[in-house]
């Protein structure tokens, strides 16, 4: 955070109004540039993982570059050419998909955090506590695949998000959540655990896994 601002007196006759020193002015400009970059990053850079910082109060933990790329490859393969992909509370996968500069699929990012509204029409405000409170333009079963990462490791959270997932998908589901949620995930969504183990940019206390309800390449590697 920017600290104490220093002043110097102007040599002008403007009633001795304090002026910012050149050093302080440069520091201020750098500070505001950093703030703008965080709230309105431009160009291709806005899709970089981490450009929007994790908010731990929202239980946000971004995937590593390798995991985001692997999951992006998976949903592209599953969606097929011209397919539609829904990223539900999985913003780092959305960012990686857009970073690939491919135009043979479409995406929506469903997120509670309105900082992701920088992604324009592809951003859909989403609160898992109101799982079916979605815009009219989001039709039922309109996505070839849904990738979802519930923010909390609780059956209540997964149950509510499952309503959203089942509403959005035409059938295929890729769920990323804790290993402790295996039984609940199977019961609510009919998914099974894959061999692939997702990694995050930070080491988390809970083991995370991927779950699918289709034959997946994620099950062919350890």
What topology does this entry show?
Layout (H helix, E strand, L loop, with lengths): L6 E3 L8 E3 L1 H18 L25 H15 L3 E6 L2 H9 L5 E7 L11 E3 L17 E6 L6 H14 E10 L3 H8 L2 E2 L14 E5 L10
Parallel strand pairs: 3-4, 3-6, 4-5, 6-7
Antiparallel strand pairs: 1-2, 7-9, 8-9
Helix pairs in contact: 2-3, 4-5
Task: Describe the overall structure.
This protein is of the alpha/beta class and 222 residues long. Helices cover 29% and strands 20% of the residues. The chain contains 5 helices and 9 strands; from the N terminus they run ββααβαβββαβαββ. It has a 7-stranded mixed sheet with strand order 5-4-3-6-7-9-8, sandwiched between helices. A two-stranded antiparallel ribbon has the order 1-2. α3 links the parallel β3 and β4. α2 packs across α3. The longest helix is centred in the N-terminal third of the chain and has 18 residues. The radius of gyration is 22 Å and the shape is globular.
Brief rundown of the structure:
The chain has 222 residues and is of the alpha/beta class. It is 29% helix and 20% strand. It has five helices and nine strands.
C-alpha-based Rg, rounded? 22 Å
Order of helices and strands: EEHHEHEEEHEHEE
Task: Compute the number of strand runs.
Answer: 9
Structural class: alpha/beta
The overall pLDDT average reads 82
Instruction: Please list the strands of the largest sheet in the order they lie side by side.
Output: 5-4-3-6-7-9-8
Number of helix segments? 5
Low-pLDDT segments: 1-10, 31-39
Choose one word for the global shape.
globular
Range of strand content: 15-25%
Give me the oligomer status.
Answer: single chain
Q: Between the first and last Cα atoms, what is the distance in angstroms?
A: 43 Å
Describe the biggest sheet? 7 strands, mixed
Helix % is 25-40%
